[in-house]
Amino acid sequence: MNIGIIGGGMTGLVLAQRLSEYGHVVTVFENNKQLGGLTTYHDYGSFVWDRFYHVILPSDTHLINFIRDVGLGNKLRWRGTLTGFYEQKKFYSISNAIEFLRFPPLNFIDKIRLAITLLYGSRINNWRSLEKILVEDWLLKISGKGTYEKLWKPLLLAKLGDNYKRISAVFIWAYIKRLFSARDSSLKKEQLGYVVGGYKTLFDHLEKLICSNGSQIHTGVAVKHIAPHPTGGIWVEFQGKKEHFDKVIFTAPVNILQEVTANELVNISSDRNSVEYLGVICMVLITRKALVPYYVVNIADKNIPFTGIIGMSNLVGLEETAGYHVTFLPKYILSSDPLLKQPDDELRQLFFQGIRLMFPELKADDIVAAHINRATKVQPLQVLNYSTLVPKVNTENDDFFVLNTSQFINDSVNNNAVVRHVEEFLQKSAFLN
Ligand SMILES: Cc1cc2nc3c(=O)[nH]c(=O)nc-3n(C[C@H](O)[C@H](O)[C@H](O)COP(=O)(O)OP(=O)(O)OC[C@H]3O[C@@H](n4cnc5c(N)ncnc54)[C@H](O)[C@@H]3O)c2cc1C
pTM of this prediction? Predict the structure, then answer.
């Protein structure tokens, strides 16, 4: 079959590799000049690494198996890392059982309630009732006020910014489920992973595999219109041309789906703006010395303008980053927030106010560069009853499919979930028959 895939992010490329390996002729259309979408890479001057921080958890079995299947198993690396909390101008490590029990901000009862929440959350299988409850209410009920304020709230802020207030409990349930097996069974150390060379290694490799099977990838090409062809199949319009495909799979965000797709193909269940997205501004600080010993620090301090710290170089060897330390400082905001459009220099100034408060000892000489990266559509906001807002594809047209992260109704958005959704999609569809 001749298949068009819209979007050359992780979803589009995993689909393209699987379908082309199976013998289909695939054409991928990617709007940006380079592949990878949100998982893409960035040239930081003396090295190339992911544009945003990405980590692989031991529980990401679908992703790990995919990486092994395409022949890159020997490029996976694992390392023990630490988790930190920043509260009342102090850093705390809660990276093993003893530190967890010692974590001063939580009293004994708080800790018991935290352990109960983790155990209870990890055992829930039916998420439906959780999407009717706000995450804040659910956590307050199970964990109590102390644990909520001192531990869960900073974590929610780090992941979602202030938008956590509108999110359903499905978010934290999916998070607990995914995270639970990140630690080894003795709860001594977190093992986290990455691919040598970052995600660029995977994307370069996938591009070679896809194109060696006779399929093709167009980068720097925005699809403008998708419509049903009168005699069957689908038209895809780009750069003033029209190409006919037997089937088309759309993987870009839902607002683009609404913009470029003919009304007969998709039926958005409710109004145009029903699915809201989170965006992120992420400062990438390149320094001569490490800022923190942790892979991740959750911040519970309103004076700090970013919502977390990701010490990438505590996971990734310094040989990957020309000997420099790389720290990501994300700030999650609604995709409609005007801050996302603020010039880089103003954002740098804002973020440096927080850096000076947290690291007064950091000297100008220690800083090599500070890059501002941003993305407007990171993940749909999983508000109450999110499953009822997900766009429904009109099944009257058997040749058009939508597979994007807006359809993840009971998952956090990550590349393991992407690979799993692609696998489930291929199993349900007739592509592999
Ligand atoms: C800050 C941050 C941290 C993250 N951390 C992790 C992590 O630690 N672990 C993890 O597993 N995941 C992480 N993720 C999530 C991961 O990046 C996503 O799961 C993944 O990128 C989703 O891929 P996708 O292909 O579905 O969507 P996207 O990456 O959004 O891909 C969609 C593609 O469609 C293209 N497109 C849009 N419009 C058009 C058009 N008209 N024509 C052609 N192409 C078009 C876009 O350019 C884009 O490349 C993180 C993401 C961010 C932003």
Answer: 0.91
